[in-house]
Amino acid sequence: MHKFKYPAKFKKDKDDGSFLITFRDIPEAITQAETPKQCFEEAADCLEEAIAGRIDDKLPIPKPSKALRNEKMITVPAQTAVKAALYIAMKENKINKSELARRLNLDVREVRRMLNPHHGTKLPSMEQALAALGKHIELHVS
To answer: Do the strands 19-23 and 71-75 form a parallel or antiparallel pair, or are they unpaired?
Structure first.
């Protein structure tokens, strides 16, 4: 099971009071915010774009570490988390887009859209694709 909730560090700048936000599991995910409230919004957006970038660049998506004392947990938005789960499942099963398209009886362009982090794929389609790889979605609301 892969959880898409990553630890972030919010470091306050002594000079201007803004916050630098970093993720130790995803070092390219760096952003800033002006207020503590904005930290969570900016961190979630930054994390989503970093995960999307890893999918686009065909890079691994690391499993999240546990938060350290000075870190806050940031959740990847649901649509991106499901797409990342499909991307990871394909890597684990060593299948490409063409093979997944064959298993789903779809055109390969549909599978490309499923993996496109910026395309709004319907949840039933994502569930079907994950099921074809022996996976399912579990939703936890907290």
So the answer is: unpaired
Q: Are residues 24 and 49 in the same domain?
A: yes
Q: Measure the CA–CA gap between 67 and 64, rounded to whole angstroms.
A: 9
Q: How confident is the model at residue 2 (pLDDT cuts 50, 70, 90)?
A: confident
Both 122 and 92 in one domain: the answer is yes
CATH number at residue 9: 3.30.160.250
Please tell me the pTM assigned to this model.
0.90
Q: What stretches of 1-142 show up as alpha helix (H) in DSSP?
A: 36-56, 78-93, 97-104, 108-115, 123-132
- Model confidence over 77-93: pLDDT tens digits? 999 999 999 999 999 99
- What's the gap between Cα 67 and its chain centre? 17
